[in-house]
Amino acid sequence: MFTTPGGALSVMAEKWFWITVAVRRLRETFPHADPPRRKPSVRDVTGWITHHPDSLDEDKTQRLKEILDRCPALDPTARHVRSFAELMNNRRGQELKDWITRVRADRLPALHTFATGLEQHLDAVVASLSLRYSSGAVEGHNNKIKMLKRQMSGRANLDLLRKRVLHAA
Fold it and tell me: How far apart are CA 49 and CA 60, in angstroms?
């Protein structure tokens, strides 16, 4: 049939060319819709809600608007969550009591529970939202020590764990 590999390759290339022409004509003949968008995950939606609206691109803003239009109960929750995020980001802890009052005025049981927890430790929460001091570094060290402890569980004695903790610090 073919005497050289080049001959087989040229026949295959010619057939491939005509196949691509036929596929191109089919695509032009039949209209096709855009592929369906991936449904947003809960993490996506919560991220869109907690971010400042100006920082979202057009597509995310539109998708969030569609979700809030489809679920009217989510709209007041989103407004309260966004305003709480603004309190945190702008260090406006003195406005927390007003925020809690606005949350209590709406029928949102999950946020009522959150507000009750905030009220139980109101002074500490207001201080953490107002002051520039943070315990983030301490929490980071605690997490590192706990990770080392989990890694060393059942492997060696306390002396080696102590050396690893001191070496990591």
Answer: 10
Residues 93-138 pLDDT 10s? 999 999 999 999 998 888 999 999 999 999 999 998 888 887 888 8
Cα(134)–Cα(125) distance, rounded to whole angstroms?
12
CA distance 96 to 125: 9
Task: Tell me if 68 sits within 8 A of 74, measured CB to CB.
Answer: yes
Q: How far is CA 85 from CA 15, 41, 79, in A?
A: 61, 20, 10
Residues of the chain with pLDDT under 50: none
Q: Tell me how far CA of residue 127 lies from CA of 27, 121, 137, 163, in angstroms.
A: 63, 10, 18, 37
Q: How far apart are CA 109 and CA 116, in angstroms?
A: 10
